[in-house]
Amino acid sequence: MTIAINAAFDGGNIEVVGIDGDRVDLTIRPDAQSDFFQWFSFRVAGAGGRTLTFRILNAGGSAYPFGWPGYKTRASTDRQAWRQVPTNYADGVLSWQVTVDSDLIWFAYFAPYTMEMHEALVARTALSPAAEHRQIGTSLDGQAIDYFRFGSGAKQLWFYARQHPGESMAEWWMDGALEWLTSDAASDLLAKATVHVVPNMNPDGTRRGHLRTNAVGVNLNREWHAPTSARSPEVLCVRDMMDATGVDFAIDVHGDEAIPANFIAGFEGIPSWTDAHGDKFYEFGRRLAAHTPDFQIEKGYEKASPGNANLSMSTNQLAERFGAVSVTLEMPFKDHDPNADAEFGWSPERSRKLAVACLEVAAGMVDEL
């Protein structure tokens, strides 16, 4: 039987170069009007009983080729469990070989969280009496920007995710966060804080199978200084809502291609930086590392030098604009090596659990924010 490769579905991305027997040569399609690419998601039909080799020929030209060494492709036959596949990167080509037992198998850069899954998440969250739902804007493709409000306390906490749509672990994090916020476990936090949640900032990129940009190739996390309705309405409507509520604490949820660990990045280098302000950010990291083995504070990004923070990025903009304790949370496409899982690597379920840990720590220090 001839195998068939297909990515014409919600969040799909791959292009077939050629199929030669049991070898499949592929390329990743760049984001629209952009040079960014790294996200892939596709299915293979007619593969049962065969040992196939897949090669992504343009991996070396991707946005973050330094992320491929040590990376393992995710594979699933039921689209529920996504297991790691031994993967090789050499001479700019990403390759893996699998023996397929079923007629259908799916491969992805990370376990997908599609727009259909997003709609289901929004629907079940909106049914909770704890949640107030609003559509606060639309994307350039006309998709809804969904927003939830919980609680009525004085502190204003914001959680938003998936500015970069290929970082699907970010919405798995949101899945866990929203489940916790609609449970009795959140009652103490919601007595002291009003919690604002945007589970997906970039629905167009999500549906289109982009790595990093929206429908017109704009990186939303470089728009926070001056968002516009023509380029970045997704950021504009969220920032306008933040201006209306204020922000005391925020987490912008992401995924990182290269570092095999969960970590946070802060707002060092903003013009208004003070050590007292920054200490609250560092204390959040210390408490989170003590709270769960799936977080650490040793690995992470280099800190911006004084006065050199990029204010087009949301974490820096919110810290400067509101005096917020503003956090970028990064989860790995690889694994959290300090607490590794050989079968699944970093996974949807671990992303969901990390969300709960983050919220529990935020609840414990809300009076200090």
Automatic annotation (TrEMBL):
InterPro entries: Cytosolic_carboxypeptidase (IPR050821), Pepdidase_M14_N (IPR040626), Peptidase_M14 (IPR000834)
Cofactor(s) needed: Zn(2+)
Active-site positions on this chain: 330
Protein name: Murein tripeptide amidase MpaA
Biological processes per GO annotation: proteolysis
Source taxon at top rank: Bacteria
Gene3D superfamilies, per database record: 2.60.40.3120, Zn peptidases (3.40.630.10)
Peptidase M14 domain boundaries: 111-369
Similarity remark: Belongs to the peptidase M14 family.
Species: Sphingomonas jinjuensis
